[in-house]
Amino acid sequence: MSKLKVQDINKTVWNACDTFRGAIDPSQYKDYILTMLFVKYISDVNKEKKQGYAEKYDGDKARIKRAMQAERFIIPENSTFDYLYDNRNETNIGSLIDVALADLEEANRAKLTSESGSGVFRNISFNSSNLGSEKEKNGRLKDLLGNFSELDLMPSHLANKDAIGDAYEFLISNFASDAGKKAGEFFTPSEVSLLLAKLTKGEAGAKIYDPTCGSGSLLIKAAQQVGSRNARIERSRNVALYGQENNGSTWALAVMNMFLHGFDNASIRWGDTIRNPLHLESSTSLEKFDVVVANPPFSLKKWGKEEADDDVFNRFWRGVPPVSRGDWAFVTHMLESAKAETGKVGVVVPHGVLFRGSSEGKIREQLIKENLLEAVIGLPSNLFFGTGIPASILVFNKKRTSSPPVLAGAEALEAPGSTRRVEGQYSTDVLFVDASEHYQSGTNQNVLRKEDIDKVVQTYRDFGAGKHQNGVVEVKYSYVATYEEIEENDFNLNIPRYVDTFEEEEPVDMPAVKQDINTLESELKEVQKEMKKYLEKLDF
Question: What is the CA radius of gyration of the chain?
Fold first, then answer.
């Protein structure tokens, strides 16, 4: 029997979307599809486990039952996919699926419910009138169950361990492509996530945190940079993942995404990160992490400024961002969540964050004076779902100190102004990269290619290793700016101030232009003569 490849899963499940296309919006039907994929997968995993225990214990039902109680998920009989498929013709199939999901949550409360007791399936109902009339709804659900019945997702029948997780990511990406402006609420393009993960690559045992984790894709990409790509168990032991998401439906996607990728111990919380952070060391202290990554909502209005003045976690001591733009609120939360002296932060921001003044300018100035900012990387436009505006990545590194490196002897003579790291001290220089013209045009949006990602990452790593001196690193691409240069620019980080991408126009050949004009005038006179002849013939 040939093993099921991720492409086969993608094709079957994407076809299952036809059940809902035209009836409800992709941003809604994604929840039905992804939930059913989750139920089908854990049902097949348990089915295979049960078969194994039946052989091991020679059919002893009591011992089989005890063994199954120790598995990843406890699945009541009425919550299995096979039960739902067998009852697909029932007129109350929508209610049967809803009950199955509720019972599945109840049997796995520690894994499938939030701290407040809300389950991952609370925001979805297969018995909703959104699915059409009773007859239409029953028909759609029958077709949906029929599509998924074509898949055998037992682990031993999959071509690789990550097949289900990869299929889940494929689906989320495609739903984001179809969902328009709503897509940004739950998905960061995988290439952007990969770039951010490589720039903030953690060490084995790292605690990784995303305060606006969406469906969890960025967190997973960050985890996959630690350890072997092909060793899921090793990866899950090498890292600890933490996330928070404000949207209930998206939080549910993230929870399922973690399980499908084998990160069973991930801690994904549901709530407003700014108003109510949930990863805490105490009632007044945030939990600290080795790596903090995020793609927060761009320039969020009503982000929580009213509460920021009295923030018990003292996150906004550098200044409070304006009420209409919450970008720096998320950035400062991330910085305060990173471990002192070792933590690393990578965040996607709109370009306005680099140069806007007032309170935002004061926060930016303070962070630069603290010597936390390590790199500013400009991205191409039209990379993100739901918006065509270009964005940037800011990389902060708490390993940097407030004093520049001290070079001794020959190094001091050979490399004045070098960014070389010495005895744990770091330069105050900042790397600027303009990668805005390095991409591939796609049907709906632009895409970062592998070579584009690799170029940014290598430039950044070379900078960290002290291979680049102050000034131009690569013409029209990268530049290392000193603290003094940034200060002279009033702490404005707008990339064109540092990376000169100006294209000089070719000098105009005036004699050639004059000759062209004379030629055109001569030709015009000939045309006018011909026109006059025709008009005379027509008696005009």
Answer: 29
Give the tokens for residue 394.
Answer: 């800011």
pLDDT of residue 319: 95
Kindly state whether residues 38 and 78 are assigned to the same domain. yes
pLDDT tens digits for range 146-204: 999 999 999 999 988 888 988 888 888 888 776 555 545 567 888 999 999 999 999 98
Model confidence band, residue 401 (pLDDT cutoffs 50, 70, 90): low
Q: In what order do the strands lie in the sheet with 391-397?
A: 267-270, 239-245, 206-210, 291-294, 344-350, 391-397, 373-378, 430-434, 478-481, 471-474
Indicate whether 502 belongs to any domain: no
- Answer with the one of 159, 174, 195 that is the final residue of a domain: 159
Mark residue 426 as left, alpha or beta (left: phi above 0; alpha: psi -120 to 50; beta: remaining).
beta
- Distance, in Å, from the CA atom of 250 to the CA atom of 335, rounded to the nearest integer, reads 24
Q: Does residue 170 sit within a domain?
A: no
How far apart are the C-alpha atoms of 11 and 36, rounded to whole Å?
15
Tokens of 58: 């020679």
Domain that holds residue 468: 187-497
Same domain flag for 512 and 479: no
Distances (CA, A) of 59 to 62, 63, 427: 9, 8, 67
In this structure, are 282 and 353 located in the same domain? yes
**Same domain flag for 342 and 465:** yes
CB 41 within 8 A of CB 74: no
User: Final residue of a domain: which of 110, 144, 159?
Assistant: 159
User: What domain count does the chain have?
Assistant: 3
Q: What is the mean pLDDT of residues 214-229?
A: 85
Please, what's the b/e burial string for 336-346 (b: 16 or more CB within 10 A of its CB; e: otherwise)?
A: bbbbeeebbbb
Cβ-contact 400, 454 below 8 angstroms: no
Q: Is 103 exposed, middle or buried (0-12, 13-18, 19+ CB in 10 A)?
A: middle
Residue 133, pLDDT score: 93
pTM above 0.90, yes or no: no
Residue 385 and residue 458 in one domain: yes
Give domain status of residue 166, yes or no. Answer: no
CA dihedral 453, 449, 289, 479 (to 10 degrees): 30
Assess whether 493 and 515 both reside in one domain.
no
CATH number of the domain that residue 66 is part of: 1.20.1260.30
* CA geometry: angle 458, 409, 397, nearest 5 deg: 35
CATH code where residue 248 lies: 3.40.50.150
When mean pLDDT is compared across 71-85, 108-122, 247-261, 379-393, the lowest value belongs to: 379-393
SS3 assignment for 305-356: HHHHCCCCCCCCCCCCCCCCCCHHHHHHHHHHHECCCCCEEEEEEECHHHHC
* 49 shares its domain with 191: no
CA distances from 139 to 26, 94, 131, 135, 346 (A): 19, 10, 10, 6, 46
Hey, is 516 helix, strand or coil?
helix
Mean pLDDT of the chain: 88
Q: Are residues 374 and 451 in the same domain?
A: yes
**Under a CB-based contact definition with an 8 Å cutoff, are residues 326 and 300 in contact?**
yes
Residue 180 lies in a domain: no
Give the model's pLDDT for residue 176. 76
How many residues does the structure list for the chain?
Answer: 540
